[in-house]
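for the writeup, i need someone to sanity check this before i put it in the appendix. the sequnce is what the collaborator sent (i think, or maybe the updated version? ugh). structure was predicted straight from it, no edits. if anything looks off just tell me and ill rerun, i have time this weekend
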Amino acid sequence: MSIFLHILVTNVLPMAIMAAIGIILHKAFSLDIKTLSKLNFYLFSPAIMFDLIYNTAISGNLIVKVMLFFVIFMVGQYILVEAVIRTRGYSPSMKSAMRNSVLFYNSANYGIPLNQLAFAGNKETLAIQVLIMITQSFLPNTYGVYSVNAHKADKRQMWLTILSMPVIYIIPLAFLLRGFDVPIPQPIETPINYLSSAFIGTALITLGVQLGSMEWRINRSLLIDVSLSGVLRLIAGPALALLIVWLMGLDKLTAAALIVSSAVPTSLSSVLLAVEFDNEKEFASQAVFVSTLISVVTVTAVIFFLQIDI
């Protein structure tokens, strides 16, 4: 129990405190969540993504392992969520909202800080989390936009929205510059470093502001659906990851990093998509709120189970 509490206090509680600060600030000053989200989405997130890709040593072998894991993991998660969707008989809009709440997980502003804390800043596990963050950043900005608009008429606007996503261009640019050893000029490198350093704190504050702007009660009509989403994301997710890394025969450290990366709560992007495209906003908000709240216990339990020794 003492080890469990140690993990809770040193790995998870710091993030909870930062999120709590965001909640308090929002309650005191009614911060504009859309402005904060745009800053994270268009500025801080692309900056840290570029910085991590450009400066983090990622071997080709590691990329293959992580990408193979990710594909198998997402297929597995998709099968599980589809089983729930078919059983519950959801409407088209609710189908996409449920898929998004399970398939899109918070690999950036929750996953990166968690990885840094759980693995004591280990560069190899950080590289793994960066790769997961890259793939998870692509999904909401491409498939996510498509899924919430697939049952609507304006396909042209949907593709224009997808093509306006900065992450689509930042990721290949960073890989190209790194691959060809192109140096970043100092006047550009310094602002990128400033923005990248600001990401974790700003992202966790934004998470708190978003949680603070939500209604802190679960609508009874959505109780079952929100619970199913939470179980699929927080329990089935790491359990499925454990099975996959065992089948792949991955080394202990790589396996642990991938399992921890799969244990994080529902991504805020599912709420942003729901708000932006008016698609089951109440369900999306409550799914994020509940999974983030419960993850304090479930993520701690996952780290405890893995017995990480760095």
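The mean pLDDT is 84. Residues 2-306 form a domain with the Na+/H+ antiporter like fold fold (CATH 1.20.1530.20).
thx in advance!!
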